[in-house]
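Q: Here's a chain of 270 amino acids. Please give me its 3D structure as tokens.
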Amino acid sequence: MSTMAGLEPEHFTWRMEGSVAVIALKGADRKNPLTFESYAELRDTFRALVYADDVDAVVFTSNGGNFCSGGDVHDIIGPLVEMDMKGLLAFTRMTGDLVKAMLGCGKPILSAVDGICVGAGAIIAMSSDMRYGTPEAKTAFLFTRVGLAGCDMGACAMLPRIIGQGRAAELLFSGRTMSAEEGHAWGFFNRLIDADKLEAEAIAFAQKLAAGPTFAHGITKTQINQEWSMGLEQAIEAEAQAQAICMKTADFERAYRAFVAKEKPVFEGN
């Protein structure tokens, strides 16, 4: 296992709050856009998290009152217009690899969304396990508004699972903004929190997760994501195997002994 201690990324901020990694994109003056380089750096970071034993949860938070304005018009969209098909496919696969890395990192991810959350920024929030928003959060899957399909980075597979097929279809066809109230009512946001408390509340919840049975949390994340492509009998068998693995952890025994002693269990993630 490796650690993420001392990580100094170029395109986003990174700090540790205990064993919770807190990430925010840079570029607040432009509402934190993504570039070719920031996509790749985020992808590589989430890939590395699989092996990091000093990170138990991730908060992807906002910066300067906004979450992310999506792909930068000048740094990404302009060059894409000039690319050949091979280059375009390399780019779209690379952006999809960021989503795959987030889904496969083995750590629960909580996005804390304030202000603008559009395009690939909305995808990052969607690809997180949970989302907190502020009343000012404005989320849009606006690909159709730049002449593209709504099927970007897994949106057509994942968004209907979160908010329902009809609601997802409307957002992906129209590219319109989903208000914070809609996002909360539809299940996109788990909670709405005032902006001045958003990051602290998100970190506090992530720290609760980090204090729990973190090995088992990784199993939960894996099963939630993998069972969408399983039949019910497959899913039940997969969960039987997964739970049997968790029953061999020291955390399971710790919980039992704490219960018998009428104490609160102290989990260690093994």
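Q: Can you summarize the key feature?
A: The chain has two domains: 12-210, 214-260.
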